[in-house]
Design a protein that fits this description.
The complex is a heterotrimer of chains A (426), B (658) and C (399).
Chain A (H helix, E strand, L loop, with lengths): L26 E6 L7 H20 L8 E6 L5 H14 L4 E4 L3 H14 L3 E3 L12 E3 L8 H10 L5 E7 L2 H16 L7 E6 L7 H10 L6 E6 L4 H11 L9 E3 L4 H4 L11 E4 L8 H14 L8 H20 L4 H8 L3 E3 L5 E4 L5 E10 L5 E11 L13 E4 L5 E5 L4 E2 L7
Parallel strand pairs in A: 1-2, 1-3, 3-4, 4-5, 6-7, 6-8, 8-9, 9-10
Antiparallel strand pairs in A: 10-13, 11-12, 12-13, 13-14, 15-16, 16-17
Chain B lengths: L5 H6 L1 H9 L11 H8 L1 H5 L6 H11 L4 H9 L3 E4 L4 E7 L4 E6 L5 E6 L4 E2 L4 H15 L5 H13 L5 H11 L3 H18 L3 H10 L6 H10 L2 E6 L8 E5 L7 H10 L9 H10 L5 E2 L2 E2 L6 H13 L9 H9 L2 E6 L4 H51 L6 H18 L3 H26 L8 H23 L10 H4 L1 E3 L5 E3 H23 L1 H11 L1 H6 L4 H26 L6 H16 L4 H21 L4 H18 L15
Chain C lengths: L9 H5 L1 H4 L1 H20 L10 H26 L7 H30 L7 H14 L16 H25 L4 H20 L11 E2 L12 H28 L1 H11 L1 H6 L4 H27 L1 E2 L6 H14 L4 H19 L6 E2 L4 E2 L1 H19 L3 H12 L2
Antiparallel strand pairs in C: 1-2, 3-4
Classes of the chains: A alpha/beta (426), B alpha+beta (658), C mainly alpha (399).
Chain lengths: 426, 658, 399
């Protein structure tokens, strides 16, 4: 959480970058993932995936006869730097498309620049929704593609009646929990059966909170934990769960931010049976996935490296973009944007992902149980679910929809039949 | 078998009838009775769900094929595969190179090799497994393997059911193991409390739970006391009413009215948005009810316009507070127990109330133990600092990085030595040695030159701190590394269902006490301690008495750093090892030392205890927000230092040093 | 040394600028720099300097401003405050609230105004709240946002909030004679408490998300960023010039002599009958206010402010800049802040070439902080006067 780089960021190479290249070749693909700072652990992998995809595409002959060139910059987990580097990528490097960001804060930081300069951006991480920017394609899960199905699973399959919503105190858990709370109330769960708790980033002292959750069991109802705990704090949380002997049979935990990458540093033998919800698990048994994993291992030179959901999101996003550019015959943002609508590409887990006109994907939702080897047993896989930009379960967004093709608006109020605004909230 | 499963059998009577009507397919091939039985409910077996599993069980029990129980066990352990093209089920074992060897479920013969993509592994989820476990209880309770019997009892505890009582009673009579028998008796009591048919039996069982603070007892009581909200013109006869709600008092008036409106008994109350929507729909020539549209930007104007429409009779009337009160007054709102017998609910209520005080006491104890555990972590983190800061007046901002260094030492040892116990035994002294050396090195190279400039020590050690942090990142990466406790420290000490403390926290507490005693001994009973105290009080005089202050400073600093290293191993075991873990503790450690009183081991102890208890105390009052606790704690410390600038244990006289 | 000697005669007061040639030099250089950047900028000149760089330079000027404030409070008055970035952040938050609220309100009025019925004030403020706080799962406008729509009010807050916090905190601390390292730790605790407080969603400042989109100025939403960035650059340059002049004047007179004396021996000054606490409180508060102003200019250029900005580490970096630049001389602070922060962004931004040693590749992103840390130790040990001291040495040698 601390700031690692100094306050003034960013490349001062700008001075030398006059004389913009007139030719369109090579096509510039911006990669905006933190390579240092607190988010580097997650984002560095995505940078590598992008380099791999670009290399693969070049081996196939590039796009529109042009070589692709990855422009990698390091926003160092420093939110203002995301805005600054986006401006640099769009104006100085003249990137035709940018793949990047992880946290919602960083996305919100770069949105104004993106919309001002009409860039094209692919965001690969599951997020809280409530947004549909003209210039962003969201290839990660919206709440209805991860959180809501997971809660349904709790309600229907595990018979959970009392919910503990534990999260790290930032925007994704806050919004997701707000949506889930109102969803649970609509499902007839009483307000007193929903326990909400927020902890700081990197929180370590979990004994009291885990004790509180166990105590919920005395209420006579099956307890389940919905965890939006982020990053390092998970280690302490799961350690304490195991120490206090909470088995998945007694109190199941479903996590939205714990995947293969996060588990790779943990002794998972005591976590067997706890759950995670994603659109992708490495253990998916399909030929596409096998090939993807093999390519990844070859590229990174380490067969122990895992793959995860945001990697699949970039894989789908990048390939859709390539197809859209081919379809549009140009890298012009507006043309590519329109060509993106309806793009289809096979998922790594089977089935086909479709890019909808609200800039969100239709993807299957998977629920997995943690295995002793740090992988997941897929125990439930739905049909493709279209991502919702605006949650119908929140009062303020119940009447909002996004449709950039028909309505040409990302925030359309169906009650008043007007477009609320064209730019996003940030 | 049918006799033992009356619940499911009756539940699905129609299904049974259906199965009986369907002619058994190809009665000649009777050698696969289980497969045939499964095929009758093929979709339910192939894609298990908690909602459909009772139907499936019912069908299988009716078919009563040999091996059903073993199959169900294997099925819920995810050892069954489905072949999609013909929908048949198989057991399988792993063959070479991702291949699976299929095994016939009836004969147990191997019938071929296939790849994992040709067949679907059936993965019943935890909810399904719980249902199956509960259904198999009857067979498991008599199982010769005690572990299986215990597992069956856990199954009952998780999903208690009226029908289990009978099987449990039979099993109890046959049970030889006294511990298991005790557990059986206990579960039987819980089942009787909830499901027995005789009121007297139930009340007796409930009385037996009086004062019982275990989670399962309270769960059973709370289940008996479940209520539903309802309303009526009068309290209906024969309803076991839990409480009556008075609208406007313990129930919002609007909410009560909304209940009536939902039931269609009164007209909906148009809210602010509804009024706006109605007005919007009734714009005529730029006016609504005679009021120009552009004036409708206040609630009063909108209300007036609405009333005008109401006069004209075009819209539903507004509902005023008086209207709502009048409507609500005609009804009684109440919560009723789902359990109809007041004797049972009364007994359960009494039993539950009787636990209240004891639970509070235990909870308080639990919080205190948590606070003590937190305090011992703070103490460990800060005690090294107390030595360097308190004794030498040196601000060591890199103290946190010594903690980190110790933790990483532990991590490295664990990667080299896989046995967790051995590695821990080696890691603790090694961490001390590594950080002792680092501390001495730092003292010799940097701090020695800055003894006269304390503020600059702060800055220089800060420089070292950022350099060390980044170095750790370069070497170990940014990913958090786990430091795994050995198995004998991994569990928890369970006092009862309310108070339990992780063993590792107890170990840390013991360790903190150990360090406290060791330091007290070193400082008060050894030659080194004497010299340290002498240098602390008056370096010049100490030097003239033949003490070498340079050496003492070096050793003191090494000692303080070494303890930080050991603390790092301990903290790594409960939290996570990252390059930033030290930075998370440094400010808190300084505050511990300052609050406690500089230069005193007891002061640090007092400071750590105060901060630990304070943080947990604030958390108790506001359990939903842990960040708030941290903020208020820092605020409190700032204020505390205002009023006791020298800390809790203030040194007096010349040693105080000002 | 040009202005290190206390002068408190009437004659020197008259000729403040003449007796402080470094101030004139500084003003001249700052003016030239501003004109240079303007001429080369995209918005108003040749377009040789990208808008991105203009923003970076403008932000650097703001950092220089808080660095001279830090220099006055530490280098001149001897209070090592490890919390001045808290004031910087509060200034940013104060102006950020207005920027966010006013921008959102304009959008909301425009969209609601398109409906058949005009919105009520309540509806507007509810919609604004839903937009600003929707992302953090809430839709109510917290109390502290009551006047966020008013620019004069929030501008006043830029000065008042840091000023009052510094006044109250300083009064408490100085009154109970907390000095030296204790005070440093206390100030650090203050900024830690504040950042933890702001991290909470319940605080009403959007928690970890902070305030964003601050580069869009309400009322100038259609002005290109190339122009807006120049406006802020000029404002930052002006503020730095004014701040420099103010502090140079403050430290050169009798007041400056007293605070330097407090730095060197607080007890003696107290025995001479001076109200030491009053002096310290004044210095602490005025520098806090200047820090707040610097922050209010910085964050609209950065575009986003969040609580991580005021984590204790930021204030420590501030001390590092001043120490490297040279304490006790205002231009030293400016040099330190500009040099270290620009160098650091160059090295971490991927602009610097990595050095391949054959057996090991030095990646600046990885090694810059190690270098900075060790360099800082070296400066503390061997060059306590920092880069400004080097400058002094050269200046003294020449004539």
């Amino acid at each position: 959480m601390m700031k690692k780089s100094l306050l003034i960021p960013a490349a001062t190479t700008a001075l030398l970058a006059a004389a913009p290249a007139a030719a369109n070749c090579p096509i510039q693909v911006g990669v905006l993932h933190s390579l240092s700072g607190s988010m580097a652990i997650s984002e560095t992998t995505l940078r590598d995936v992008m380099l791999m995809l670009v290399e693969q595409q070049n081996a196939k002959g590039g796009v529109l006869g042009c070589e692709l060139e990855a422009v990698v910059v390091d926003p160092a987990s420093d939110w203002p730097l995301f805005a600054e580097l986006t401006r640099q990528l769009l104006t100085v490097n003249e990137a035709d498309v940018i793949f990047g960001a992880w946290t919602s804060v960083s996305r919100k930081a770069l949105l104004p620049v993106l919309e001002e300069l009409n860039g094209l951006f692919f965001y690969p991480v599951q997020y809280e929704g409530q947004e549909s920017s003209r210039n962003v394609f969201y290839t990660g899960a919206a709440p209805n593609q991860q959180a809501i199905p997971a809660v349904d699973y709790f309600l229907e399959e595990l018979g959970v009646e009392s919910f503990a919503l534990l999260g790290t105190d930032y925007v994704y858990p806050r919004t997701t929990n707000a949506i889930l709370e109102s969803y649970l109330l609509s499902k007839g769960i009483a307000a007193e059966d929903i326990f909400v708790n927020y902890t700081p980033f990197g929180y370590a002292d979990w004994s009291t909170i885990v004790g509180d959750v166990i105590g919920l069991g005395a209420g006579g109802k099956q307890v389940g934990v919905i965890s939006t705990i982020n990053g390092d704090a998970n280690i302490g949380f799961y350690t304490e769960l195991a120490a206090q002997g909470v088995s998945a049979d007694d109190i199941p935990v479903v996590a939205f931010s714990v995947g293969e990458e996060e588990l790779s540093g943990l002794d998972t033998s005591r976590l067997v049976g706890h759950l995670a919800a994603w659109n992708y698990f490495m253990s998916a048994d399909t030929p596409e996935n096998e090939e993807f994993i093999a390519t990844w291992h070859e590229f990174i030179g380490d067969t122990n490296r895992v793959t995860n959901d945001p990697m699949e999101a970039h894989y789908i996003g990048f390939n859709m973009w390539v197809n859209a550019v081919e379809a549009a015959g140009t890298t012009d943002v507006d043309a590519v944007r329109e060509a993106m609508w309806g793009q289809e590409f096979p998922n790594l887990t089977g089935g086909t992902a479709v890019m909808n006109t609200n800039h969100h994907l239709s993807k299957p939702v998977l629920i997995g149980e943690i295995r002793a080897d740090g992988q997941f047993d897929i125990i439930s896989q739905t049909e493709e679910v279209p991502g919702e930009a605006w949650s119908p379960f929140l009062e303020d967004s119940a009447t909002l929809v996004s449709d950039w093709q028909e309505l040409e608006c990302g925030m359309f109020d169906t009650a008043t039949e007007t477009c609320v605004q064209l730019t996003s909230n940030y | 078998m049918l006799r033992l499963m009356p619940r499911i059998a009756t539940l699905c009577a129609c299904l049974i009838a259906l199965i009986l009507v369907v002619p058994l397919r190809a009665s000649a091939q009777i050698e696969t009775p289980l497969q045939d039985a499964l095929q009758t409910v093929q979709p339910l077996v192939a894609s298990p769900s908690r909602a459909t599993v009772p139907d499936m069980l019912a069908a299988l029990i009716v078919a009563d094929a040999p091996g059903t129980v073993a199959f169900l066990r294997a099925w819920s352990d995810r050892e069954v595969y489905e072949r999609p093209e013909d929908g048949l089920f198989f057991f399988a074992r792993e063959g070479a190179d991702r291949a699976l060897v299929l095994i016939d479920i009836d004969t147990g013969e191997e019938i071929g090799v296939t790849s994992s993509r040709e067949v679907n592994q059936i993965r019943p989820n935890a909810g399904v497994r719980r249902e199956v476990g509960a259904a198999l209880v009857q067979f498991e309770l008599m199982n010769p393997d005690p572990a299986r019997r215990i597992a069956a009892l856990e199954s009952i505890a998780r999903s208690p059911d009226a029908e289990q009582a009978e099987a449990l009673e039979i099993a109890l009579e046959a049970e030889q193991d006294s511990a298991i028998a005790l557990r059986m008796q206990r579960l039987l009591d819980l089942l009787n409390a909830r499901f027995a048919t005789e009121t007297a039996t139930r009340v007796d069982a409930i009385e037996g739970l009086r004062g019982d603070i275990s989670t399962e007892a309270r769960r059973a009581l709370n289940q008996i006391l479940q209520t539903r909200s309802d309303f009526g013109e009068t309290l209906p006869e024969g309803t076991n009413v839990a409480r009556v709600r008075v609208p406007g008092d313990d129930m919002a008036l609007i909410a009560a009215y909304a209940v009536l409106a939902d039931a269609g008994l009164v007209p909906e109350r148009p809210g602010r948005n509804a009024i706006r929507d109605v007005l919007r729909a009734n714009v005529v020539d730029g006016t609504v009810g005679g009021i120009p549209v552009h004036q409708l930007d206040t609630d009063e104007a909108r209300r007036a316009a609405y009333l005008a429409l109401q006069e004209a009779g075009t819209v539903a009337p507004l509902v005023t507070t008086a209207d709502m009160e009048a409507a609500v007054a005609q009804y009684v709102f109440y919560d009723a127990y789902l359990e109809a017998d007041p004797a049972v609910t009364g007994a359960a209520r009494d039993a539950l109330d009787s636990t209240r005080t004891r639970i509070s006491v235990w909870q308080f104890l639990g919080i205190s133990i948590d606070a003590l555990s937190l305090a011992s972590i703070f103490f460990l983190a800060a005690i090294g600092l107390a030595i360097t800061f308190g004794v030498m007046r040196v601000i060591n901002m890199a103290h946190g990085e010594f903690i980190m260094m110790g933790a990483y030492t532990g991590y490295v040892v664990q990667t080299v030595i896989p046995n967790y116990t051995t590695s821990l035994v080696i890691a603790l002294p090694l961490a001390f040695a590594v950080t002792f050396a680092a501390g001495v090195l730092m003292e010799r190279l940097v701090i020695r030159h800055l003894y006269t400039r304390p503020l600059e020590t702060l800055l220089a050690t800060f420089g070292i701190s950022i350099a060390l942090q980044q170095l750790a990142k370069n070497i170990f990466g940014t990913q958090a590394r786990p430091l795994t406790a050995p198995d004998w420290l991994a569990g928890a000490i369970q006092v009862n269902d309310i108070v339990s403390v992780a063993s590792i926290r107890v170990a840390i507490f013991v360790m903190a006490i150990g360090f406290l005693l060791m330091l007290l001994y070193i400082l008060n009973r050894t030659r080194l301690g004497l010299e340290v105290r002498a240098v602390t009080q008056n370096p010049g005089m100490a030097a003239s008495m033949g003490i070498n202050p340079d050496r003492i400073n070096m050793l003191t600093f090494g000692l303080g750093s070494g303890i930080a290293g050991v603390a790092g191993v301990a903290i790594g075991l409960v939290a996570q090892v990252t390059s930033e873990m030290g930075a998370n503790y440094i400010v808190q450690s300084f505050m511990t030392v300052v609050v406690g009183g500089v230069g005193s081991v007891f002061g640090t102890l007092a400071g750590a205890t105060l901060i630990g208890f304070l943080q947990k105390g604030i958390e108790w009052f506001n359990p939903a927000n842990t960040l708030a606790a941290q903020t208020f704690m820092v605020l409190f410390i700032i204020l505390f230092i205002q009023f006791r600038p020298k800390g809790i244990v203030a040194l007096k006289g010349r040693a105080a040093g000002d | 040394m040009p202005f290190d000697i206390p002068r408190n005669t009437a004659a020197t007061k008259r000729s403040f600028l003449i007796s402080n040639p470094s101030v004139l030099w500084f003003m001249g250089l700052l003016g030239l720099f501003t004109i240079g950047v303007t001429v080369l900028s995209e918005g108003f000149g040749l377009g040789l300097i990208s808008t991105n760089l203009v923003k970076i330079l403008g932000m650097t000027l703001c950092l220089c401003l808080i660095a001279i404030a830090m220099d006055v409070v530490w280098g001149y008055c001897g209070i090592l405050s490890l919390g001045h970035f808290a004031f910087f952040g509060l200034g940013g938050y104060a102006i950020g609230m207005w920027l966010m609220y006013a921008r959102t309100e304009i959008n909301i009025r425009e969209s609601l105004g398109r409906g058949t019925i005009p919105p009520t004030e309540l509806e507007v403020s509810e919609a604004v709240a839903a937009q600003i706080f929707g992302v953090v799962g809430s839709s109510e406008l917290p109390l502290i946002w009551s006047f966020a729509g008013s620019l004069p009010f929030q501008l006043a807050m830029v000065v008042l909030v840091p000023g009052l916090l510094a006044l109250v905190f300083g009064w408490l601390a100085f009154r109970s004679r907390v000095t030296g390292v204790y005070l440093s730790i206390l100030t650090q605790a203050m900024t830690l408490a504040l950042s933890l407080y702001l991290f909470q969603n319940d605080t009403g400042l959007r928690g970890n998300n902070g305030l964003s989109g601050l580069q869009n100025i309400p009322g100038a939403l259609h002005v290109p960023q190339a122009v807006i960035s120049m406006w802020f650059f000029w404002a930052s340059a002006f503020a730095l010039g004014a701040g420099y002049l103010l502090f140079a004047w403050v430290v050169s007179g009798k007041f400056g002599s007293v605070i330097r004396a407090i730095r060197d021996n607080e007890a003696r000054v107290r025995f001479l009958g001076y109200n030491v606490e009053g002096y310290k409180l004044f210095v602490f508060t005025i520098t806090a206010i200047v820090s707040g102003i610097a922050g209010a200019l910085y964050y609209p250029q950065a575009g986003i402010i969040n609580p991580a900005e005021i984590a204790p580490i930021a204030s420590i970096y501030l001390a590092v800049w001043v120490a490297i630049g040279g304490r006790g001389r205002l231009y030293g602070a400016v040099i330190g802040a500009a040099f270290v922060s620009l160098l650091s962004s160059w090295l971490t931004g991927g602009g610097a070439p990595n050095i391949d040693l054959g057996f090991y590749r030095i990646v600046w992103t990885d090694w810059w902080l190690v270098l900075l840390g060790l360099g800082f130790v070296a400066v503390t040990l061997f060059f306590p006067k920092g880069m400004g001291g080097l400058f002094d040495y050269l200046v003294r040698k020449k004539p």
